Amino acid sequence: MIIMEDTILLPKHPVISEGAENEATFTIEGLHPGYGITLGNALKRVLHSSLPGAAITGVMIEKVNHEFSTLEGVLEDVLTILLNLKQVRFRMFSNNPETVSIHVSGERKLTAKDIKCSSNVEVVNPDSHIATLTESSSTFVAELTIERGVGYVSRDVLRHEKVQASVMTLDAIFTPVRKVRYEVEHMRVGTATNYDRLRLSIQTDKSITPKEAFLSAVGILKDQLKQLESFGEVDIFEQQPEVVSGEGFTKEGGSKDTEEIDAMQTRVEDLKLSSRTVNALTKANIYTVENIVGKTADELLDHEGIGEKALTEIQRAIGNLGIILKQEE
């Protein structure tokens, strides 16, 4: 008589086989049949899309108004220079945008090591080529905006943020992971020969180590799954809470309860917004949730420093309180 297994065995601890400084392979053995692809695909997606990093989001070059320009005494055109700047990788120790600068002259090659950074920013690939100055009278002066983010953000999204006319926005590749590859093969566990061995290879941009990337991805997956263990205090068959509208600050029922009033008095600093968005709201004399929901989305976008990205952040923050913006009439 064959006794069927009714439990899923846990895999062995990962074994790291390091290659270059920014490359490593993680081997996980003893995975339940089929779990090699399940975990490998999940980890690969998280590594590519969900790890935070830093990238250049805006460039302002002296005597340049658009990316299709050329610079006298510089071999590369501006478009090529921008593409080269996208390859420069940074390590940031601040959550706020940072401005770094370049100011060089003379016949020489311009590389990432020529970028003058504050104490909150570090260039991790200083040998990355940016431009070639071909004459002794050549000069290159620029300011770069460095920001932290997650995954990839296109320049079209960044353009919605209000920036100076002379600033050229770049597609921002925030993820610190360059390549991820995994393979699955069968292995023997006891008498069974259909268990999985997962090999996951990670290459980073050197701003973090492959081990840090792996552990971050595992932590993200664990946090997401942990949230699914509880369905919350409200039963799914109970009536869902009504959404508070900015129009008059009342629920559909018409009465204001204490919790709603408290939510309206929440200060913008307590909404877990980015410093950039908080500063923009404060500058617009918007200090509480009540001030926010008294405005429509278009009215918020009219304020300096509030673009589509900031608007989405604001809507998500007040949405967590069960509140929405004032609707267009």
From TrEMBL:
Note one Pfam family from the annotation: RNA_pol_A_bac
Which stretches are annotated as coiled coil? none
| GO cellular component annotations of the record | cytoplasm; DNA-directed RNA polymerase complex
Query: Would the keyword Transcription be found if you checked this record's keyword annotation?
Result: yes
Q: Where is this region: Alpha N-terminal domain (alpha-NTD)?
A: 1-237
What are the alphabetically sorted keywords of the record?
DNA-directed RNA polymerase, Nucleotidyltransferase, Transcription, Transferase
What sequence ranges are listed for the domain DNA-directed RNA polymerase RpoA/D/Rpb3-type?
A: 23-231
Q: Which CDD domains match?
A: RNAP_alpha_NTD
Is the Transmembrane keyword given for this protein? no
What EC designation does it have?
Answer: 2.7.7.6
Any GO BP:
DNA-templated transcription
Q: Name one GO molecular function term.
A: DNA-directed RNA polymerase activity
Question: What reaction gets catalysed by this protein?
Answer: RNA(n) + a ribonucleoside 5'-triphosphate = RNA(n+1) + diphosphate
Q: What class of enzyme is it?
A: transferase
Note on domains (UniProt): The N-terminal domain is essential for RNAP assembly and basal transcription, whereas the C-terminal domain is involved in interaction with transcriptional regulators and with upstream promoter elements.
What job does the chain carry out? DNA-dependent RNA polymerase catalyzes the transcription of DNA into RNA using the four ribonucleoside triphosphates as substrates.
> Which family is this sequence assigned to?
Belongs to the RNA polymerase alpha chain family.
NCBIfam families of this UniProt entry? PRK05182.2-5, rpoA
State the oligomer form and interacting partners: Homodimer. The RNAP catalytic core consists of 2 alpha, 1 beta, 1 beta' and 1 omega subunit. When a sigma factor is associated with the core the holoenzyme is formed, which can initiate transcription.
Protein name from the UniProt record: DNA-directed RNA polymerase subunit alpha
Organism of origin is Candidatus Ryanbacteria bacterium RIFCSPHIGHO2_01_45_13
**What is the gene called?**
rpoA
